């Protein structure tokens, strides 16, 4: 069976799920395909997802425009109202939403909450959703791209979008080659109940071993940890039982929130940097982690992906007399719009990860002095915060 669409999106992660209704709203026929299920998952109400995201105000506005943000349960969202950043030798920097004229620096949302809200939005938008699918082959002709599934179905579209994550099959099938570069770190994530209230404050410590420890506020007296740790330490943390892990995490953060108790199992994510020569090709566009990989120290990976989805949907909605959504002029416009924000975010996150990597004494003194100097320059601080907010 061959079905014809304007756009076929391969990959129903958060980025693909946000793009589908954004395109559908501008009158395009859209199919969304994933190897996983697209059914709603059932969860006990008193449990938390270890996978959380810091969603920037800019991404929240996009998700609201798509129709998903306003359906999130407000008791499962926490605002980051302030943030304290510490270097590995006394440097420190504070950000405050109030000072920047924002309601929040970012919103902390569990992945499963966001995923459920987006799945329902996609369903309401009339997108064809094809779950549990195995992608078999991708072929191109001048007027269309054709995605063949392992069950023999073919999906033809004027534009194929690869939203299938860091190890993108679509990217490889399109011949866009780039090897992700390992940071030699694994991010260990887990949630904790805390002795003391966090008052909407996030914490981040750049550690002497090159790792970065972040605590992000969850609703109530709970917090989510993302510890980007050198491999050996990450494996040790992942092997600890909840009690030992809680004690280590509380100690590593100087007991800023008192004692902790682990409320989710710890999970690890290997960290990789990915920069591609291009994010578009004939009748193809890449979005999200398929298009770029950044260190999670600034919590910006999915925000960059939502930025891709917003840009691509805007370019296609405003295509004027160009009726073909896969026309090269539109894809080039999309690639141009995304090049600068992606490059800037990669430069900042990769630069910080490198700056705090080597244990050279003079560099240690310099980077800590630099952090404290930025803290004394409100205009520079504001300029640094803007890209992360938007
Ligand atoms: C520890 C950690 C913490 C992070 N915290 C933050 C944060 O606070 N804020 C933030 O903005 N970002 C954060 N990120 C980054 C964020 O997780 C990613 O940028 C984001 O998940 C990418 O979404 P995506 O939809 O592009 O890809 P993915 O989430 O990887 O989704 C890809 C989808 O494609 C499907 N797929 C893959 N291959 C195939 C195939 N062959 N066939 C069919 N389907 C396929 C998958 O099933 C999946 O549904 C963090 C990352 C890490 C590791």
Q: Could you walk me through the main structural features you see in this protein, from its secondary elements to its overall organization?
A:
By secondary structure, the chain is an alpha+beta fold. It folds into two domains: 2-53 and 112-180 and 274-353, 3-Layer(bba) Sandwich (FAD/NAD(P)-binding domain); 65-110 and 181-271 and 360-389, D-Amino Acid Oxidase, subunit A, domain 2 (D-Amino Acid Oxidase, Chain A, domain 2). It has helices at residues 14-24, 57-66, 111-124, 169-173, 231-239, 242-252, 301-317, 328-355, 361-375, 378-389, and strands at residues 2-10, 30-33, 52-55, 77-80, 82-86, 92-96, 106-110, 128-130, 135-140, 145-149, 154-162, 181-194, 201-206, 212-218, 222-230, 260-262, 267-275, 280-281, 284-286, 292-293. The strands form three sheets. Strands 5, 6, 12, 13, 14, 15, 16, 17 and 20 form a nine-stranded mixed β-sheet that branches. Strands 1, 2, 8, 9, 10, 11, 18 and 19 form an eight-stranded mixed β-sheet that branches. It is globular, with a radius of gyration of 21 Å. The chain starts with a strand and ends with a helix. The relative contact order is 0.17. The mean pLDDT is 92. Flavin-adenine dinucleotide binds at residues 10-16, 34-36, 53-54, 135, 163-165, 169, 187, 189, 226, 269, 288-289, 296, 299-303, 305.
